[in-house]
Amino acid sequence: MSQSLSCPLCGAREPEHYHRDTRRDYWQCRTCALVFVPPDQRLSAEDERAVYDLHENSPDDFGYRRFLERLFAPLSERLAPGAHGLDFGAGPGPTLSLMFEEAGYPMAIYDPFYAPDTAMLERDYDFITATEVVEHLFDPGHELERLISLLRPGGWLGLMTQRVISQQAFVRWRYTHDPTHVCFFSEATFHWLGDRLNMHVEFPARDVVLLQKQF
């Protein structure tokens, strides 16, 4: 089967089989190290939306704000006053965008299900955030390249996603239990992405990565 599979991030073919649980297979790209679920084992768009509709994230939830602070704090430290941002994949209860607006950073939001205004993807930004988003992407190579193309020189892409540590840890990893999680990044994957797209890469927290577009 590996001969018919290609990596959704870099396009390389013939990945290695990485793991199988009771529901799905996981393959790892030999080039960029992305671990991914094959297309025929992903949810339909309708079933995916049904899972997202169960989310109860809210700007009024202090615990959720504290969770988002792990990205908000290190990213805001790197931004010029009044920098303009985009929250990509904002979900049904946009909160990170509100946190940035409260701190003086004008924000746009985009979400394919809940805020599908594609005009937001035709502007330039000083920074873009995507919290708990990249693990859901069916075509992360295309989506990440598109987001980076929207950044002005020196702009930041801030991502929150749990990272693959090892094959042994992956077997016990609860992060794979969510059926909408189909792509799993490691530090090696983000370093590959940084080299590929000329981005400086930083890891300020265990589930946060910041990529800066070079001038």
UniProtKB/TrEMBL annotation:
One of its GO terms (molecular function) is methyltransferase activity. One of its GO terms (biological process) is methylation. Keywords: Methyltransferase, Transferase. This is Methyltransferase.
